[in-house]
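Colleagues,

For the teaching module next term, I've prepared a clean inverse folding example: a structure given as tokens, and then the sequence designed for it. I'd like students to try predicting residues themselves before seeing the answer, so please don't circulate the second half yet.
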């Protein structure tokens, strides 16, 4: 799921105007040496829910295949979009959410739904000396909460009887 998340986020960030090198996993703290704007991706623990429902049945000339969902998997992802310009950040946030697909298929062919749950803007409090505002580094960010909902499936294959030989001669 991690590979799928990183590919999807990178694709949407590039479509919103960011270079692929600027999409990375989360750093330990806000590292000033890393260039801004950038997107830091943090995967939260996945939640599994046992379902056991039947998804579909396929029948060929030789086999009967039943596909079952064993678990529904919900993977929450935190995206921290760090920027220096407030206008760029708001434009990027809108374009990024618009570029995210509704869902896609994973490498096993299972549908993974994608939803944006929240977007929390972060701006540090203004430092003032009297009436004057002191701005040393502009640290703007927006924290997005995405949910990727997929499934763990299995295929049960039964071979069908394809040839029957009837012997008309009875031996007594």
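(Answer key — instructors only)
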């Amino acid at each position: 799921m991690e590979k799928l998340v990183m590919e999807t986020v990178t694709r949407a960030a590039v479509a919103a105007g960011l270079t692929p090198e600027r999409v990375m996993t989360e750093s330990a703290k806000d590292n000033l040496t890393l260039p801004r704007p950038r997107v830091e991706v943090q995967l939260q623990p996945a939640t599994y829910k046992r379902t056991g429902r039947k998804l579909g049945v396929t029948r060929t000339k030789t086999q009967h295949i039943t596909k079952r969902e064993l678990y529904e998997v919900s993977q929450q992802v935190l995206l921290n979009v760090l920027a220096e310009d407030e206008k760029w950040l708001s434009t990027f946030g809108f374009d990024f959410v618009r570029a995210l697909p509704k869902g896609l298929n994973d490498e096993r062919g299972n549908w993974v739904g994608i939803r944006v749950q929240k977007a929390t803007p972060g701006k540090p409090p203004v430092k003032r000396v009297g009436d004057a505002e002191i701005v040393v580094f502009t640290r703007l960010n927006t924290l997005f909460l995405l949910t990727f909902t997929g499934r763990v499936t299995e295929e049960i294959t039964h071979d069908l009887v394809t040839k029957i030989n009837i012997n008309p001669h009875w031996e007594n």
